[in-house]
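2024-03-11 09:14:02 INFO worker-7 job=invfold-0412 stage=load source=structure_tokens
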């Protein structure tokens, strides 16, 4: 049993209302693992948790996957999935793409999945989806041909 599961089982003894969001997520996973399932169906298992807990949950799911447990989950944590899980499926009414994250997470597939432009970059061998900054209330630097580039100055509107 992965180390994170033992701690989660301990949390099952605590009143549910006294648990933090991250503790509740771990307790839900521990409950799901009690019957030694071959498949876990998870709906947003990292929603409402801090970055450390999200990383812990994703590491646990990776460990479980390496113990031949199939993980099927919905999530909007695209980069966490890319960093921890070996196979993804993008859906939007139908399967748009499936495979390793570095092959599936392309601007074209993400456009079809989310209906918005989503830049993709490479970092230490991982494909990551980046945020497009919004420059409301800022003026572009004169002479710069990139309309997304602005000066560092920001003043709130009066």
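2024-03-11 09:14:09 INFO worker-7 stage=emit residues=158
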């Amino acid at each position: 049993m992965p180390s994170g599961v033992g701690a989660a089982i301990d949390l099952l003894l605590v009143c549910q209302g006294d648990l933090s969001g991250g503790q509740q997520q771990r307790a839900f996973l521990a409950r799901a693992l009690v019957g030694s399932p071959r498949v876990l169906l998870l709906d947003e298992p990292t929603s409402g948790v801090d970055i450390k807990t999200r990383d812990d949950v994703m590491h646990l799911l990776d460990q479980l996957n390496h113990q031949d447990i199939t993980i099927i989950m919905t999530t909007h944590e695209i980069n966490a999935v890319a960093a921890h899980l070996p196979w993804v499926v993008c859906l939007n009414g139908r399967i748009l793409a499936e495979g390793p994250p570095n092959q599936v997470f392309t601007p074209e597939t993400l456009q079809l999945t989310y209906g918005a432009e989503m830049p993709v970059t490479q970092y230490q061998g991982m494909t990551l989806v980046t945020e497009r900054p919004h420059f409301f209330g800022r003026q572009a630097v004169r002479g710069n041909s990139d309309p997304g580039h602005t000066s560092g100055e920001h003043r709130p509107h009066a």
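2024-03-11 09:14:09 INFO worker-7 stage=report msg="The first strand starts at residue 39 and ends at 43."
2024-03-11 09:14:10 INFO worker-7 job finished
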